[in-house]
Amino acid sequence: MGPRRKNVKPCSVNSEDSESTIADEPKDYMNQLSHEVLCHIFRYLPLQDIMCMECLSRKLKEAVTLYLRVVKVVDLCAGRWWEYMPTGFTDSSFLTLLRKMPDIEQLYGLHPRYLERRRVRGHEAFSIPGVLEALQACPNLLGVETSHLELVEAIWTYMPQVHILGKFRNRNGAFPIPPENKLKIPIGAKIQTLHLVGVNVPEIPCIPMLRHLYLKWVRLTKPQPFKDFLCISLRTFVMRNCAGPTNSLKYVQIG
């Protein structure tokens, strides 16, 4: 007698189980949305999160590109004006970012932790000339929000048509006043609120748009710092613990 053959029962596959397994798999709802809906969602997300979506899928990358082409207002700090902008920017990467936004009109949150005064040869740095080049690449730019002393002075010098948005307040104020903390305010600077703390300032010139002026630990270096002071829109003027010529307030034209 030969060996017995084992009867192997065929394993029946339950169609209901397979359907439930497929149903349990997570669906990619984002890729099912249209580009228009995705762009509408991006309006409520921080820019950093939007840029991270570029690498998730081809459709999301296309949606991010479309959104950046038409966006007019961008906040690098996601509404948290007291924080600094994301680190890791270089001159080239910042220029690449702003070139993706040709219609941008208002740039908020330009609060870098540190900026090089000049470009560094052979090194990818984040510098004031690099930021200016990126801003000048935006033909429709109307205003910028920043808190950097040297950057705002450079904007006033090379881009005088650009408004300084919000409340400008330098974040490196200290006493005794550091020698590098200095600001030269041009005549007719396009700014509404100026708060200076621990800064050397030659004079306060004629600024028709200025509404609020707050000076604390400010050293006024010119003999007559308020000689040309004329701010027709001024509503608030505060000086606290400032140094300069004797009785400098006699040069302030009030009324």
Automatic annotation (TrEMBL):
Pfam family name, one: F-box
Q: Which residues form the F-box domain?
A: 32-65
Outline the segment boundaries, as ranges, of region: Disordered: 1-21
Q: Which SUPFAM superfamilies did the record assign?
A: F-box domain
Which terms does the UniProt entry file under GO BP? protein K48-linked ubiquitination; SCF-dependent proteasomal ubiquitin-dependent protein catabolic process
Cellular component, GO, one term: nucleus
Q: Signal peptide location in the record?
A: none
Looking at the record's lineage, which domain of life comes first?
Answer: Eukaryota
Write down the PANTHER family for this protein, in alphabetical order.
F-BOX ONLY PROTEIN 38 (PTHR14753:SF3)
Its protein name is F-box protein 38
